[in-house]
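ARCHIVE CARD
Drawer: 12
Card no.: 0347
Subject: one protein chain, sequence and derived structure
Cross-reference: see card 0346
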Amino acid sequence: MPVPQTGHVGGAATSDALCYICHSAVSIDLVYHQIQRAPTSGPNIPSGAARIEYEIYKVDVNAGNQPVVTFRILKNGSPVSFNAYTGEAVARPADLIT
């Protein structure tokens, strides 16, 4: 879905289905559908906050017609490792208070 912007003659679009009527394929890819990166500094980012980024490597569709996304998470530019999910319940802090 396009990000609503002021100045779009047709008004905010509800889907991308009709973009081609006014916009060429090249302009859609190079001008209108650009990935926007969040700022890594500024008044809304607390000083000392970690910079978190997501890198999507690929998206496939499995035999069950479900999307399978291969990605990684970076914290301050370095890959973050997560423990394998074991299916065990995780205690919440409130559960630990006696």
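Annotation on reverse: The radius of gyration is 21 Å. Helices lie at 19-22, 25-32, 93-96.
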